[in-house]
Predict the structure of Acetylornithine deacetylase.
Amino acid sequence: MKRLLSFLVITGLVAFAAYKASAWWLLDQRLAGARAGLSEYGVLNRGSIGSSLDGRIFLEQPNWQDFRLTQPVAFRLLEFDAGSPVTLLTTLLEPGRLPATWNLAAEGVSLELEPTMFRNWVTAGPDETTRGPLVGLACAPDPRQQLGSGDLMRMGIAGIRGDFTLHQSPETLRLELNTRETGSLELVWPDARLRVNNPLSLSGISSRPVQLTLRDAGLMRRLSAYCARETGQDVSSWAGKAVAVLDRGLRERGWQASPQLLALYRQWLTEGGELSGSFRPASPTLGIPVHSSAGNAPGADLLYNGARVPDVYLTEIQPEAPEPLPRALTPVAPPEDPGVEQWYAQSLETANDWLNRRVRVTLSNDNQVEGRLASVGERDLEIARTVAGGEVAYPILKRAITHFEVWRRGRPE
């Protein structure tokens, strides 16, 4: 009896060690293959590997550094639950054959923000888009300068932090994403199954619509108030211009938004809240109905703060021509008087020569920004202005500047 007990104990220990070693080795091999496949796009650091006897395997402190971003996406814990140890080992042996039910959870996901999140080589290419954008959230005197990470930092959001869960069952694919300061997202996709060989492809996953719920956690009120202040407008005027961008962008694509759709967009921009409904990711309109003419046809199935929103649809129209970009004017330099200190026009190419000097720029919308020239980059320059007793630097795209002036004394002829 004693020998039998000893044999069982030793066998159990050997089996336990074999399971842990197999799980570690198999995941290490799969991650090595993933690193090689993703090496063109970034660097995957796996952290430390651990596993449990209930079919879970996890990574502690992994991170992903995308070559396009200046900061990595870090995880405190990334865990995959296959349901049983046998299923886990089978999945690691053949990743293309996921079990019918599995769960992927990430805890402590974080992305620290910087004023410039994308590297210069990503943003240096010319903008070849001929049609106007659908989303235009201007947060600077120049309306073409859109909301960026620097604006979020000035709003007090130093990083994006939260958790997410991806759960696959035979009936649905469910995603839950919760962040601390930027809201949450819930997605339920009936009859959908994620494909490991091409997880980002949405075509063919399911013919059923996605049930999506979006909550902003108060972000939109803060954002609209901040952007309105930075553009020198009230919140209503700022939201009206953002709605006009959406309306114009849709018209350039051959669609006219219903009044209720534009009103819903305006309400979301200024108040936020909870928005839920059915969407089709593969559809050009995300499943919003497109009618040949305005009428009483059914609209999208949307709920705003629990109440149904009727008459949300698009009407098919003849696409409108995109608005031409404003042309920069060539300044005429007046004669300079060495005894007078005033504004003098300078070439924008010489901006580096005027660092820390008082400058004034005229933008394509005729707005002017004046302050200290704090820095000059490849695509933009920063003008520092005094706000509430402190100095705040505002980035301005060079392509939006039509006139560059420096406050200085004239030069003798």
Observations:
- The helical segments are 2-38, 85-93, 120-123, 149-154, 219-230, 235-252, 259-271.
- The longest helix spans residues 2-38.
- Residues 375 and 382 are 5 Å apart (CA to CA).
